[in-house]
Hints:
The longest helix has 25 residues, at 80-104. The protein starts with 20 loop residues before the first strand and ends in a 10-residue tail after the last helix. Strands 3-4-2-1-5-6 form a 6-stranded parallel β-sheet, sandwiched between helices. The protein contains 7 helices and 6 strands; from the N terminus they run E-H-H-E-H-E-H-E-H-H-E-E-H. The radius of gyration is 18 Å and the shape is globular. It has helices spanning 29-35, 40-61, 80-104, 119-132, 148-164, 175-179, 227-239; strands at residues 21-25, 65-72, 107-111, 139-146, 192-195, 214-217. Helix 1 crosses helix 2. Strand 3, helix 4 (119-132) and strand 4 form a beta-alpha-beta unit. The chain has a single domain, classed as Undecaprenyl pyrophosphate synthetase (3-Layer(aba) Sandwich). Bound molecules: farnesyl diphosphate (FPP).
Amino acid sequence: xxxxxxxxxxxxxxxxxxxxxxxxxxxxxxxxxxxxxxxxxxxxxxxxxxxxxxxxxxxxxxxxxxxxxxxxxxxxxxxxxxxxxxxxxxxxxxxxxxxxxxxxxxxxxxxxxxxxxxxxxxxxxxxxxxxxxxxxxxxxxxxxxxxxxxxxxxxxxxxxxxxxxxxxxxxxxxxxxxxxxxxxxxxxxxxxxxxxxxxxxxxxxxxxxxxxxxxxxxxxxxxxxxxxxxxxxxxxxxxxxxxxxxxxx
Length: 249
Ligand code: FPP
């Protein structure tokens, strides 16, 4: 089975200013489904097809890391049937796509408290990470059972353990030490955070890592967030002046 063609529409993006790391809160599957007269699961299935397109488009555009919020630690509060459906969809999608991800040289990471996931899903994710670990094109990082505060708590536990073992002095704890204990040490912080479907909040996503990220919110629901929408988001990003707290004349 060959790999499918990725078509990138005409655009005027500055290739020198493509964001290195793009993070996405993929919201609005349910609203999109309702608006089209379908149930929520149809919206999630459509969201999967959009995600596939966006991963390949991000790679083609030269983005080096793409982190997407697939399932938050709060999403367990959804009806059991929807949670089960999402877990099944993720297992199906990763198994269906892994060969193409490998062929394209895309590195897969899955971040979050994975030990709470169904065993078969843990296995699918572990296999995907193992098969793609040496790849250096784009890193596709799927946040699953992920919470930004939980990630900070898990990092603090690691730092505390290092102090307890005598490996680290309290005085030497700094931002870098904390970053090194997050789920993806070495991954640059997101330059651009995209949220679809219009809500103006972070929803516990990448709280530590988004300190200086540029935020782009679009009204477009996730299933309709295709490559042209990603290009619009990057165009908007390229107009921003990033100051990182400093004054820029
Ligand atoms: C938000 O829509 C979306 C999610 C909670 C899950 C994201 C899942 C996908 C994009 C499906 C494919 C994922 C993988 C990894 C294959 P919502 O249900 O919160 O929408 P609403 O706010 O309109 O109800």
